Amino acid sequence: MSLWWTGKDQLDDTQRALIEDLPLRENHMILGPPGCGKTNVLLRRAQFLRSQSMPGVMVLSFTRPLVEFVKTGCYDGRREIFPPSLIMTVEGWIRSLYRSHKVALPVRGPNDSLALWKRTLAGGALGFSTNSLVPKFDAILVDEGQDLYLEELQLVKEWADVVFFVGDSRQKIYRDSDGLGAVEATFPGMTVKTLKFHYRLAPELCRVADRILNSQSGETLSSTSLYKGPKPGHAETHGPLGKGSQIAAVIDKLKTQTRVYSTLIEQGDKLGVIVPRGQDRQAVFDAFEADAELSGLSQIIRARSIDLSDSNFDPSFDPDRPISIVTEAGSKGLEFRAVHWLFCDDLRHIRQTETYYTVITRPKTSMDAYFDGTLPQSLAASCAPSDKELW
Questions:
Q1: How far is CA 227 from the centre of its chain?
Q2: Less Cβ crowding at N or C end of the chain, within 10 Å?
Q3: How confident is the model at residue 311 (pLDDT cuts 50, 70, 90)?
């Protein structure tokens, strides 16, 4: 079992109850902060449903890397405990509906936004279930429910009588998605439960995240943390630094972290390097490959299945390459022992507050953010400077 996943005997009582005790034929949504085990509960609930004569389940997530992440929970050692073939991206599942019903995909216009494309793709598949030879699912389980569009929710409802969602409104990546309110409106009467405690985030990271967004319950990440990892945690910003200097600084820190966290890396932990744009990934990767110590240790993780430039790349995590290079959007749902957020002042004019929160809560122990011009307000107001000589 990877460090990312909790076995049955490691679940807390609340997590186990959400998996085993909720009625099988009713709809449920589980809310909770980063690191509380939502995705773990989602996959284990799907596993439990299959053991209760409901084999026709489908687990849906958002990006290819996140799907690959979820698939790592399908094995206990070499034994398969859940079929990886029953885990897909939302978009991949919708595309499969077009294929199975022999209907051509809608054409995406050159100026169509991602939101318009996702709505069009899902909307075009509505009605396929009518008189279809393809059977409906016993249940559909959806990760990151806050980022679904209404048409996607309607499609899920069309293909399953039982649904199970997990989500957190503070980790909403798509600005114009319809949110968790739309989930409840689409499935009236669904049971909503909350996971209060989280296990992933070091207290130092909790304090930064708490200054970026409040929880709807009013409880802070700091007050609900059960973190037991390496201490102390670390959160720091660096700059202004030119982009080349930022990459050089990351290289120096990664050399240390690959040694310090070597035992945890052997158990499955990863080190994350997060960038704003897809085109930033290659420059970072090339710099790492040019360094004698880091060469062969990093991997570009590509998230968008409709990005033609990414279509021929393997999205799975290479166990021999502990450093993952991923975009902000592609980091959604993932977790790393340490994160380096490069060029964090780029795209500040379009980045929403939830994106800052999402990225800051990807690491378990250590976060370093690097900027070239001016530190974005959300980070400046949440992360205290380490240089006490500033006053």
A1: 19
A2: C
A3: low
Instruction: Say if 104 falls within a structural domain.
Output: yes
Is 0.85 surpassed by the pTM of this model? yes
The beta-strand segments (E) located in 25-110 are: 28-31, 57-61, 75-76, 79-80, 87-89
| 331: helix, strand or coil | helix
Quote the pLDDT of residue 53: 97
Task: Give dist(CA 246, CA 176) in Å, integer.
Answer: 32
Structure tokens at 166: 């997990």
Q: Both 242 and 168 in a single domain?
A: no
The tokens of 100 are what?
Answer: 């199975």
Instruction: Report the CATH number that the domain containing residue 378 is assigned in CATH.
Output: 3.40.50.300
Q: Predicted confidence band at 187 (pLDDT cuts at 50, 70, 90)? A: very high
Whether residue 167 contacts residue 29, with contact meaning beta carbons closer than 8 Å, is answered with yes
> Are residue 83 and residue 24 in the same domain, yes or no?
yes
Tokens, residue 38: 């939502």
**Per-residue CA distances from 298 to 111, 117, 194, 323 (Å):** 34, 32, 36, 4
Domain range holding 371?
203-390
Q: Are 182 and 246 contained in the same domain?
A: no
Give the residue, 9 or 154, on which the prediction is more confident. Answer: 154
> Which residues 6+ apart lie within 8 Å of 228 measured at CB?
199
Query: Where would I find the beta strands (DSSP E) of the chain?
Result: 28-31, 57-61, 75-76, 79-80, 87-89, 139-142, 163-167, 191-194, 234-238, 271-275, 298-300, 323-327, 336-341, 363-370
In-domain check, residue 243? yes
34 and 106 share one domain:
yes
pLDDT tens for each residue of 27-52: 999 999 999 999 999 999 999 999 99
Q: Is residue 322 part of a domain?
A: yes
